[in-house]
C-alpha cells in the first residue's frame, strides 16, 4: 500500500514537470515555423513562415514541421523541398550545408550552393558526372581522389534531381 502511494506521488511529480516542459517549449501550439534559407550569393527565404521543409541529410532525409525538436544537421547533396503556406512547393538543389532547427520554431538552412531544380540542365549534369568519373580514374594522389569522389557524389545527386 505504501509502495503504491509512493508510485502515485512520483508519477504526479513527473507528469507535472513533463506538462510544464511541453508548455514552455510550445510543442502543441506552434502553428508555423520561420525559415531563413541562404547560400553565399543569395538569400532564398528571409525569416518567411512556411508549413514544412524536407531536407537531405547524411543521417537520412527528414521532414521539418513546426515545433520540431531542436536539431543541428549536415546537408548532403540533394533536393530541399519547401512547402509554403499558400500550398505551393519549391525545390532547390543543394551541394552541401547545414540546417539548424531552434526551440522557437525557426529554421536556418545555410547551403554552399542552392539552385532551383527547375533551372537545372540534365545533359550538363550528366556531362559533369562523366568529367568527375574521368578525374577519379586519372587521379594520382589521395587528395585528387577524394576531390573526385566528392565531385561524383554531388554530380550523381544533381543528375537524380534533374530526373
From TrEMBL:
<keyword id="KW-0175">Coiled coil</keyword>
<dbReference type="InterPro" id="IPR036771">
    <property type="entry name" value="ATPsynth_dsu/esu_N"/>
</dbReference>
<protein>
    <recommendedName>
        <fullName>ATP synthase F(1) complex subunit delta, mitochondrial</fullName>
    </recommendedName>
</protein>
<keyword id="KW-0809">Transit peptide</keyword>
<comment type="function">
    <text>Subunit delta, of the mitochondrial membrane ATP synthase complex (F(1)F(0) ATP synthase or Complex V) that produces ATP from ADP in the presence of a proton gradient across the membrane which is generated by electron transport complexes of the respiratory chain. ATP synthase complex consist of a soluble F(1) head domain - the catalytic core - and a membrane F(1) domain - the membrane proton channel. These two domains are linked by a central stalk rotating inside the F(1) region and a stationary peripheral stalk.</text>
</comment>
<keyword id="KW-0813">Transport</keyword>
<feature type="domain" description="ATP synthase F1 complex delta/epsilon subunit N-terminal">
    <location>
        <begin position="33"/>
        <end position="114"/>
    </location>
</feature>
<dbReference type="InterPro" id="IPR020546">
    <property type="entry name" value="ATP_synth_F1_dsu/esu_N"/>
</dbReference>
<keyword id="KW-0496">Mitochondrion</keyword>
<feature type="coiled-coil region">
    <location>
        <begin position="122"/>
        <end position="149"/>
    </location>
</feature>
<dbReference type="GO" id="GO:0046933">
    <property type="term" value="F:proton-transporting ATP synthase activity, rotational mechanism"/>
</dbReference>
<dbReference type="InterPro" id="IPR048937">
    <property type="entry name" value="ATPD_C_metazoa"/>
</dbReference>
<comment type="similarity">
    <text>Belongs to the ATPase epsilon chain family.</text>
</comment>
<dbReference type="Pfam" id="PF21335">
    <property type="entry name" value="ATPD_C_metazoa"/>
</dbReference>
<keyword id="KW-0406">Ion transport</keyword>
<dbReference type="GO" id="GO:0045259">
    <property type="term" value="C:proton-transporting ATP synthase complex"/>
</dbReference>
<keyword id="KW-0007">Acetylation</keyword>
<keyword id="KW-0472">Membrane</keyword>
<feature type="domain" description="F1F0-ATP synthase delta subunit C-terminal">
    <location>
        <begin position="120"/>
        <end position="161"/>
    </location>
</feature>
<keyword id="KW-0375">Hydrogen ion transport</keyword>
<keyword id="KW-0139">CF(1)</keyword>
<dbReference type="GO" id="GO:0005743">
    <property type="term" value="C:mitochondrial inner membrane"/>
</dbReference>
<dbReference type="Pfam" id="PF02823">
    <property type="entry name" value="ATP-synt_DE_N"/>
</dbReference>
<dbReference type="InterPro" id="IPR001469">
    <property type="entry name" value="ATP_synth_F1_dsu/esu"/>
</dbReference>
<comment type="subunit">
    <text>Component of the ATP synthase complex composed at least of ATP5F1A/subunit alpha, ATP5F1B/subunit beta, ATP5MC1/subunit c (homooctomer), MT-ATP6/subunit a, MT-ATP8/subunit 8, ATP5ME/subunit e, ATP5MF/subunit f, ATP5MG/subunit g, ATP5MK/subunit k, ATP5MJ/subunit j, ATP5F1C/subunit gamma, ATP5F1D/subunit delta, ATP5F1E/subunit epsilon, ATP5PF/subunit F6, ATP5PB/subunit b, ATP5PD/subunit d, ATP5PO/subunit OSCP.</text>
</comment>
<keyword id="KW-0066">ATP synthesis</keyword>
<keyword id="KW-0999">Mitochondrion inner membrane</keyword>
<dbReference type="InterPro" id="IPR036794">
    <property type="entry name" value="ATP_F1_dsu/esu_C_sf"/>
</dbReference>
Amino acid at each position: 500500500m505504501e509502495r503504491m502511494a509512493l508510485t502515485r506521488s512520483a508519477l504526479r511529480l513527473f507528469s507535472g514537470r513533463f506538462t510544464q516542459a511541453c508548455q514552455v517549449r510550445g510543442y502543441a501550439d506552434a502553428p508555423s515555423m520561420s525559415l531563413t534559407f541562404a547560400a553565399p550569393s543569395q538569400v532564398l527565404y528571409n525569416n518567411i513562415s512556411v508549413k514544412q521543409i524536407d531536407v537531405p541529410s547524411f543521417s537520412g532525409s527528414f521532414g521539418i514541421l513546426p515545433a520540431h525538436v531542436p536539431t543541428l544537421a549536415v546537408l548532403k547533396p540533394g533536393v530541399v523541398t519547401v512547402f509554403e503556406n499558400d500550398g505551393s512547393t519549391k525545390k532547390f538543389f543543394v551541394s552541401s550545408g547545414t540546417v539548424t532547427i531552434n526551440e522557437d520554431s525557426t529554421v536556418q538552412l545555410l547551403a554552399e550552393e542552392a539552385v532551383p531544380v527547375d533551372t537545372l540542365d540534365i545533359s550538363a549534369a550528366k556531362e559533369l558526372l562523366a568529367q568527375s568519373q574521368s578525374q577519379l580514374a586519372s587521379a594520382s594522389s589521395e587528395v585528387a581522389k577524394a576531390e573526385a569522389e566528392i565531385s561524383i557524389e554531388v554530380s550523381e545527386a544533381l543528375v537524380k534531381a534533374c530526373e
